[in-house]
Amino acid sequence: MFYRESGQFKSTYAEDSQIFPIRQDRWVVGGIVAFAFLGIPLLAQFGWVSNYAFTAILTPFLIFALAALGLNILTGYAGQLSLGTAAFMAVGAFASYNFMLRIEGMPILVAFVLGGLCAAAVGIVFGLPSLRIRGFYLAAATLATQFFIVWCLTKVGWFTNYSSSGVITAQKIEMFGYAFDSSMSKYLFVLGIVSVMALLAKNMVRTNIGRSWMAIRDMDMAAEVIGFRPMRTKLMAFAVSSFYCGVAGALFAYAYLGTVEPEGFNLDLSFRILFMVIIGGLGSILGSFLGSAFIVLLPIVLNVAMQSLEGAGLPLPSGIGSSIELMAFGALIIFFLIVEPHGLARLWQIGKEKLRLWPFPH
Amino acid sequence: MSKKSGEVILSFDNISLSFGGVKALTSIGFDVREHEIRAIIGPNGAGKSSMLNVINGVYHPQQGEIVFRGQKRRGMNTYESAKSGIARTFQNIALFKGMSVLDNIMTGRNLKMRSNFLLDAIYWGPAQREEIAHRKAVEEIIDFLEIQHIRKTPVGRLPYGLQKRVELGRALAAEPSILLLDEPMAGMNVEEKQDMCRFILDVNDQLGTTIVLIEHDMGVVMDISDRVVVLDYGKKIADGTPDEVRSNQNVIDAYLGVAH
Ligand SMILES: Nc1ncnc2c1ncn2[C@@H]1O[C@H](COP(=O)(O)OP(=O)(O)OP(=O)(O)O)[C@@H](O)[C@H]1O
Ligand SMILES: [Mg+2]
Prior knowledge:
Helix content of chain A: over 70%
Oligomer: heterodimer
Number of helices of chain A: 14
Bound molecules: adenosine-5'-triphosphate, magnesium ion
Largest sheet of chain B: 6 strands, mixed
Strand order of the largest sheet of chain B: 6-7-8-3-9-10
Strand content of chain B: 15-25%
Number of strands of chain B: 10
């Protein structure tokens, strides 16, 4: 009833090519962003949002969403399958760490950008095989990237500042003399970065560069014939994607874990992010967020469900919790791959289309 | 169809192309004049699509010479030919299935875009102005092809006939000087064919675009083309005006005689 575009006439192409051309969408998204920046901190003041919620749910949700966004650019938009997401995150994290460590007075945001650029450079190098191979073989090549990078970071002591265990402790986040110590301030720091980068990504995918990625994904021969250059386009996708993953990796180390070792960026993490993209929706910015929320929340929801089962006098054998989680993941992945490859974002879209016509569907 | 036909802008001499043992083209030579509608016809497997692929550099002939705007070359290359104003459609629709009609046609303008990805990312100032200017040009094409109602629909969901129309739109978006059309009317009903003919004639007439057209429907070919080249088994068997070709004995034997 209230979700209607009637009466909203667009008189210029500028109006029609806004990110959210429908007014209600703008309100909803604006509302969510405002709530994330103002509402949540306010609720925290009243003690309604706990530290646990910040450190275990909200902050990792945002960081994973950023990594998923990075992978989505490469896989969802440009059609290049990658299993090396965690490796690019690792490059971002360890490069930022070294910039902070070795350059006096390095501002943290600059270190993150430089870390992202290092990840982008590595992405370009390891994206070179994509010019020749695709699909399964490319996935295998990115798998090699994954193992190679983690091996490098473990073997070359310089990267971890010769710490004996290979574990690094991320420096404190400080900007303009303000220290982001509390869980809430870290959340806001991450939120700021993720919001800006999501906006930039949205702009990229709706303009020429995004169209070049999708064109290569959908029909590379036709893309070439109309003047897109496959090499440049694919490497650009690898670069931008790896930049996003690199910054996500830096945030993962600095704002989430605090201490991290190269093994923290293993294949498991790569797969986890791939699952987010598949469940959330390939080729959708919103989907990256939905997928991340889903995968961060799923274990928590399952946990609560099982505890309440126990409370109801149905104790489950210990250790079954994590297996249930894995089984639920497996089932969902298969469900989405078969039934709805465009993921939650597509389901959301369908829901909106229905709502637009409701209550008169014809 | 008298009128217009200007200078020769594209000519082929002794073009041969083979795939392994299969000879797709054997010593083909013909030319294309500016502003004309040049048809290539022939039975299935005659080498028509291969010829089109040679023109815009998807295939590289093993032998022969191409003269394009006075420049001799051994073969074309896809990027260079796009840059120099050659656009095309494909026999099997080659649209970007996951993108909307609008975005598909926008891709056709990519070589005209100056903005870089950093400006695109902040979508501010010049980037925004450019995007909107191109959007305007694309909307004109959408109006021309009468597909306003589907502009935001993903092309994968459209019926075949409309997809062919969108593909023409994408080619037109490049404002080409030469337009290569590979069976633009295949699989269409009479009404859709008439629309497509009208679009092709209008483009040729109003924009002066040179058109190289492959088409199986003889009625259409004889109606709209200025000159026709006939291929059979990779060889050229006739070349001339529709009337000349129609009465050519080789053609009657090889092609028109064949029940279709
Ligand atoms: N990429 C390729 N690899 C191998 N053989 C090819 C290739 N492209 C074309 N051929 C062969 O070249 C010959 C000419 O094919 P082409 O597609 O040019 O014919 P056509 O005249 O367009 O036919 P149709 O009317 O069926 O579209 C055929 O024998 C075909 O099998
Ligand atoms: Mg053909």
